[in-house]
Write a structure and sequence with these properties.
mainly alpha
């Protein structure tokens, strides 16, 4: 059996040179978190040892995103009763039980919006 290798012809001077955009679209490989980088000589490595810098950056960005995403709900919880009492007006806004009931429904709608947004986006 004989193997034949074909050599690609050299590009002529009229062909377009690849740009950075071509390289990013065709050769993009996302970095991987190498959790098994630790040498096997260590008896019991700590949970954080051997984790790439990229993994730490992803963890920090995700934690910050979650923190800022939930901050609006925490601020809403602080002002919920007063805001709903103002929105309901002087007649219904004075009933504390009704304000609490409407506040719980608004909070539930907030949480449902978060969950739907998490699945859709």
């Amino acid at each position: 059996m004989r193997l034949v290798f074909r050599v690609a012809p050299e590009p002529s001077r009229t062909t377009r040179r690849p740009t950075r955009a071509d390289q990013h679209t065709t050769n993009f490989r996302p970095p991987r978190c190498n959790l098994l980088r630790m040498p096997m000589t260590q008896a019991s490595p700590r949970w954080y040892q051997g984790v790439d810098r990229y993994c730490w950056v992803v963890l920090i960005v995700a934690a910050l995103g979650w923190m800022f995403d939930t901050m609006d709900q925490n601020l809403f919880t602080l002002v919920r009763n007063n805001s709903i009492a103002d929105l309901l007006g002087p007649v219904r806004g004075t009933d504390a039980a009704y304000v609490k009931f409407i506040g719980s429904w608004v909070t539930a709608a907030f949480l449902v919006g978060w969950s739907v947004g998490g699945f859709v986006f």
